Give the backbone structure.
Amino acid sequence: MTTLNAELRTFYEARQQQIPAEVREIMQGAGHELAGSGQADRALTVGARAPRFTLPSATGQSLALDDLLTDGPVVLTFYRGAWCPYCNIALRSLQQHHEAITARGARLVAVSPQIPDESLTLTEKHDLAFDILSDIGSDTAKQYGLAFDLPDDLAAVYDKLGFDLQRVNGGHPRTLPLPATYVVDRAGVIRWAFVNTDYTTRAEPADILDALAALN
């Protein structure tokens, strides 16, 4: 069975052939700058208490971390948005493993800075059975140490590509979260963490399942 990151790498390599050299250079430069910023090292990791939040779901229902934890551990994953093809591949992979996650007594929720309407469209398009939460302004991502601002040249590239982050992020077009996934136990403590500045790399669902198994 192909791993998620093998699938992401195959997509990345094909995608590079379609992107103009000057755009690739801007994207790679921004990636190197973010990797060297130390941002990933400042993000919350294993042993930290997971910051509490209450966020709207795609259907407008407010979901609080405390309420989610009453039923068992939570798998909390942060992604950039429906405009990001790597995020879509990762979310589809999580959906494929959703039954296995719930079988281990856990609740899976995904968080992005997008408005609920965008989350609803994404949920319907990929037939996602887990909740997608809207962290408009990235306040929750900031609490987890994940939020960063796009550099000017990369923001301009995204505008030219038609991502329209001004609209889909509810007036906060420059702030995005690092891709990250946490396993939070019922006591609200982070027991497993994946954080990476490279948006083409994501947490492997098999590793998430192993982390959940280790809680028991």
In short: The longest helix spans residues 21-35. Residues 14 and 35 are 23 Å apart (CA to CA).
